[in-house]
Structures are given as C-alpha cells and as structure tokens.
Specification:
Elements lengths: L3 H67 L14 E2 L12 H4 L1 H7 L4 E3 L6 E8 L36 E9 L5 E9 L1
Parallel strand pairs: 1-3
Antiparallel strand pairs: 2-3, 3-4, 4-5
Length: 191
C-alpha cells in the first residue's frame, strides 16, 4: 500500500488534468459558438441582399410602364430624347445592355425624363426604348429585327419595305438600389 501522501499527490495531478481537459472543451465550445454566430450573421446579410435585389427587380415594372406612356405614337423613324426613344438600335455591352444606360451621370443629364426615383425605397429607375433597326428610315427586312415572320413570297430579295409598325422595339430598364444593388430588364415587342 502506498502511503497517504502519495495518494494525495496522485489525486492533485488528476484534478489538474481534469481542469486542463475542461479548459480545452470550453475553448472548443466557444469557437463553435462563435462560428455559429458568424454563420447566422452571414445568412442575415444574404437574406437582406436578396430582398434588395428582389425589390430592384420589382421596380423595373415602373420603368417599363413609364417607357410605355412616353412611347411616341407617330414618327417612330425619328429619335425623340424627350420620349426616351431612339429610332435605331443602340450600342450594347457584352451583356446586351445598351451602353447608354451604363454611363449614369451622362444619361441623367441628357435624358431627364427617362429617370424616376421610387419613394420609400430610394431606388433610381432609368429606362430607354430603341427600335431594333440599323437605319432611321422605314423598316426594311434587311435593316431591322422583326418580331414576326413574313409569309413566303411577301418580299423579294430583301428590298420590300415593311411598315414601321412591323418594327421590333426594345425597352431596357435599369434600377439602382441600396447597397449597390443593380437590376436590368429588357422587354421586346412590336408597336
């Protein structure tokens, strides 16, 4: 049998080891709690960003409605900056967005009627309509993108004039919202 003092020393060592294990477990629990808190914060940020994106996408409807109300009812072969309208197809970037809408400061100073601000959210809506034709003249099959197909024999050699009403128009809407949110939509149709 061991003397009583050796039992006490061994017990003291064991209590120290238990303390060390408890501290390691406590540190591990604290780190996992911190990781859980961090992931919850990230999830909250993602949900907030998604709601901003959805709101910006919804605001594009306002731009489309405004573009429709400003669409020139006659002389669609002439540019009309006051009506946010170009009679020829605009240059586009690699995403298919008219370059005109990407230069917001130039756009805002040139096309004041083509911008509105959504009350409450502060989202800025910019819109523009362009006719998908290479020239401003009456729409020719060879110069314009048409929203419909012609019946066989309707034109010979690509030189027959198609009424302007047959031209295809593109409305592009850009919405800038909070936290750098930007949404684009395009609507294509015929007059």
């Amino acid at each position: 049998m061991l003397p009583r003092s050796s039992h006490l020393r061994r017990a003291a060592r064991q209590r120290g080891a238990a303390l060390f294990v408890a501290l390691v477990v406590l540190v591990a629990l604290a780190l996992s709690a911190l990781a859980l808190l961090r992931s919850t914060d990230v999830a909250g940020l993602l949900a907030g960003n998604l709601s901003f994106k959805e709101s910006a996408l919804n605001a594009t409807d306002l731009g489309y409605q405004q573009a429709q109300s400003l669409f020139p009812t006659s002389a669609t072969t002439a540019d009309s900056p006051a009506n946010c309208f170009s009679s020829t197809q605009l240059d586009v970037d690699s995403r298919g967005v008219p370059s005109l809408l990407n230069a917001t400061s130039t756009f805002d100073s040139t096309y004041t009627a083509c911008k509105l601000t959504v009350s409450g959210t502060g989202e800025v809506v910019r819109f523009f309509t362009d006719r998908l034709c290479a020239r401003t003249s009456v729409a020719l099959v060879t110069d314009c993108s048409l929203a419909h197909k012609l019946p066989p024999g309707a034109w010979v050699g690509g030189s027959a004039a198609i009424p302007t009403a047959g031209s295809t128009f593109r409305v592009t809407v850009r919405v800038d919202g909070p936290r750098g949110t930007t949404a684009y939509t395009q609507f294509i149709g015929r007059q």
